[in-house]
Write a structure and sequence with these properties.
The complex is a heterodimer. In chain A, the strands form 3 sheets. In chain A, strands 11-10-9-12-8-1-6-7-13 form a 9-stranded mixed sheet, with helices on both faces. Chain A has a two-stranded antiparallel sheet with strand order 2-5. Chain A has a two-stranded antiparallel ribbon with strand order 3-4. Chain A folds into 2 domains: about 1-220, Rossmann fold (3-Layer(aba) Sandwich), CATH 3.40.50.620; about 240-285, no CATH class. Chain A is α/β, with parallel strands linked by helices. In chain A, strand 6 (about 55-60), helix 2 and strand 7 form a beta-alpha-beta unit. Chain A contains 7 helices and 15 strands. By secondary structure, chain B is α/β, with parallel strands linked by helices. Chain B has 2 domains: about 25-220, Rossmann fold; about 235-365, TPP-binding domain (Rossmann fold). Chain B has helices at about 25, 45-60, 75-85, 105-120, 130-140, 255-265, 275-280, 310-315, 345-365, and strands at about 30-35, 35-40, 40, 65-70, 90-95, 120-125, 145, 150-155, 160-170, 175-180, 185-190, 205-210, 220-230, 240-245, 270, 300-305, 320-325, 340. Chain B has a 7-stranded parallel sheet with strand order 7-11-6-1-4-5-12, sandwiched between helices. A 5-stranded parallel sheet of chain B has the order 15-14-16-17-18. In chain B, a hairpin with a 4-residue loop joins strand 9 and strand 10 (about 175-180). The chains are: A alpha/beta, B alpha/beta. Chains A and B meet through strand 3, helix 3, helix 4, strand 9 and strand 11 of A and helix 4, helix 5, strand 7, strand 9 and strand 10 of B.
Chain lengths: ~280, ~375
């Protein structure tokens, strides 16, 4: 069995600050992490490897420093790691990204046939959830998004049974291998890196692929050129014109503050009054 | 990779904004909204999108269409009629037994065929699990641009292009994205980000039927079972009129009871900011914010929530926001309507009493 997990290195969004004047992201000093949603995909792949044996390969497209994310995956237990990196990929939107990743996956598949491609459900920097579906369509793989559980893999019959989160319930689906699965968050807990794997990760020689090595010959499909969307404007959210009306002062008693607020709400917002009437009625 | 293509135009040069649209793409006209339903239930984001689509279509001087797919029958057709009530001029209808349950392959095929045939300039879907699955697949199949989770949609009349604004980097920045020389231009919008329009039950429209041309044996993925969520305790945060939410300022898990108590008095839903969900105090279903639910209640009471941008983007459309926080510098006071600087442990019990008294007065007044 061969699973390839596509991962992305992202800035830790909790620590990102925006430059107050230039409205640009200040990346300096912001730690780069493995996209948290991808950890569920890595762990699920490792669990399947525990069950069915085989190989887990991790693939990432990004700048050279994204190798840290791949080493992290090796330290959890992934077998091989490939970094797809080329200046020509810069400025790629999700469509151009899925093109490059699909090309690399096709190359990987030639070396060792792939049974499953895993991704996280989305990234925390772009939040689009588009690259997984994009790869599936480009490679002609069956697409299963928001998967919470892989019930069964039948490697002989080339079938998989999975549970997929829908808005109002869970779909149990049977599909054909190879397929692409985007894993839902919270479905497992990523394992600790063992000492052995940590040493292995430190010494591991990553495969670093340029666009040519991924078999990409036409540059019009990648990077800025291959991206139908353009960012027309980036700006900071506008603060509301008015700050909150502050109720009372710090010296006011809690009772005064509370009564003052309730009176204000009822007086100034008649639609709330009717809302409260329902509540008052319901509790009568 | 031999799928149909919304052909990109010749060269994409330096100044995108003033570029003439490729003549082949000028034929693309009209605004479409994918009408999402599953197991007989409409996903209300579809109506919210029709409200937004109406404005865009009027600005462009074109028609607004709903796209309805599903099992053959009255239930599916009823969604067309409702789409007219919410602003659609027409509906494209694809009825087929293989569309009974959502599956990526037949839905992508149906949507691709419709778009290739009728050529809309804008296509919008809800950013739900279904909508994102379909939108991402469809955009790649047609090789066109897709902007996810938009919070504002406008038309740039210079070149008739859709200017789609979305939060990025966890809501710290907003960016406006355009798909200039590809059609259709696609956007997804999360539920409750746009207002639900008032339905006009007298509005009617025309239905254009389209055949799918797939049979069950063509479809690779099979639905073995559908397990509906137990609805008993499922919070209805997105549609609540009053929400009381707690954040890290509550300090201890047992203090979250204050939030629940106030919510009980108000008949409100309980919400929380991300740190409390991450700490495991509160269920993920109750998380409000960029990575949780978007809400727009009539009243939102935030207790011990600092108002980080990640939370703000999920609740700032609330009609009235009340913030209680012991830090006078907390950013939530920059966008709340009413603020109380104080200790939640004393203010909230007082607030519960004050509301109880108010309700008692209202009951006596009848």
């Amino acid at each position: 069995m061969h699973i390839v997990v596509c991962i992305k290195q992202v800035p830790d969004s909790a620590q990102i600050r925006v430059h107050p004047v230039s409205n640009t992201i200040m990346r300096q000093g912001v730690p780069a992490i493995v996209n948290p949603y991808d950890l569920y995909a890595i762990e699920e792949a490792l669990r399947l490897k525990d069950r069915y044996h085989g190989q887990v390969t991790v693939l990432s497209m990004g700048p050279p420093q994204a190798e840290a994310a791949l080493r992290k995956a090796i330290s959890f237990g992934a077998d091989e790691a490939i970094l797809l990196t080329d200046r020509a990929f810069a400025g790629a939107d999700t469509l151009a990204t899925s093109y490059a990743l699909a090309a690399a996956l096709t190359r990987i598949n030639e070396e060792l046939p792939i049974d499953l491609v895993f991704t996280g459900k989305q990234t925390i920097d772009g939040d689009t959830a588009q690259v997984g579906p994009g790869i599936a369509k480009r490679m002609g793989l069956e697409l299963l998004t928001y998967v919470s559980q892989i019930d069964e893999l039948d490697l002989e019959r080339r079938e998989a049974t999975v549970r997929r989160r829908a808005e109002g319930g869970v779909q149990v689906l049977k599909t054909r291998l190879p397929c692409l699965v985007t894993m839902l968050e919270g479905i497992n807990e990523v394992r600790f890196a063992t000492m052995t794997n940590m040493f292995r990760a430190a010494r591991y020689e990553l495969k670093v692929w340029s666009k040519e090595m991924a078999g990409i010959t036409d540059p019009s499909f990648i990077g800025l050129k291959g991206s139908p969307t353009v960012v027309a404007k980036v700006f900071a959210p506008q603060p509301r014109s008015q700050r909150a009306e502050m109720i009372g002062s710090e010296a006011s008693s809690a009772q005064d503050l509370a009564i003052n607020l309730v009176t204000k709400l009822s007086a100034k917002h008649p639609n709330l009054e009717s809302e409260f009437a329902k509540t008052a009625g319901a509790r009568a | 990779m031999s799928e149909p293509q919304a052909a990109p135009a010749a060269k994409r040069g330096g100044n995108h904004r003033k570029m003439e649209l490729d003549p082949r793409l000028q034929a693309y006209r009209g605004v479409w909204v994918f009408v999402e339903h599953e197991r007989g239930a409409i996903q209300p984001v579809s109506w919210e999108l029709l409200g937004e689509g109406r404005k865009l279509a009027d600005q462009l001087g074109v028609e607004l269409a709903g796209v309805v797919m599903g099992a053959p029958g009255e239930a599916t057709r009823q969604f067309c009629r409702e789409a007219f009530h919410y602003g659609a001029d027409l509906c494209y209808l694809v009825e087929d037994p293989v569309l009974t349950d959502y599956r990526n392959q037949p839905y992508t095929k149906a949507l691709t065929d419709l778009v290739d045939t009728f050529q809309p300039e804008i296509l919008m879907l809800g950013a739900t699990t279904l909508g994102r699955d379909l939108a991402g697949s469809f955009a790649t199949t047609l090789k066109t641009g897709l902007t996810a989770d938009c919070t504002e949609l406008n038309i740039d009349m210079d070149n008739r292009s859709l200017a789609a604004t979305r939060p990025t980097f966890g809501g710290r920045l907003l960016c406006t994205i355009q798909t200039l020389n590809y059609r259709p231009q696609m956007a997804t919008v999360r539920p409750r980000v746009m207002a639900l329009p008032q339905p006009d039950r007298t509005r009617d429209g025309r239905i254009i039927e389209h055949r799918l041309g797939l049979i069950e044996t063509d479809i690779i993925t099979k639905v073995l079972e559908y397990i509906p969520d137990a609805n008993v305790d499922k919070p209805q945060l997105a549609f609540a009129d009053v929400i009381v939410a707690g954040g890290r300022g509550l300090k201890r898990q047992e203090n979250f009871k204050l939030v629940e108590d106030l919510a009980a008095v108000l008949g409100a839903e309980v919400g929380a900011s991300r740190p409390l969900v991450q700490a495991g105090w509160v269920d993920l279903e109750r998380q409000v914010g960029q990575s949780g639910k978007t809400v727009r209640p009539k009243l939102y009471i935030a207790i011990g929530i600092s108002g980080a941008i990640q939370h703000r983007v999920g609740m700032e459309s609330s009609d009235v926001i009340v913030a209680i926080n012991n830090d006078p510098q907390a950013p939530i006071f920059d966008f709340a309507h009413y603020g109380i600087v104080g200790n939640a442990m004393t203010v909230v019990p007082a607030l519960i009493d004050a509301f109880r008294q108010q309700f008692a007065v209202m009951r006596r007044a009848g």
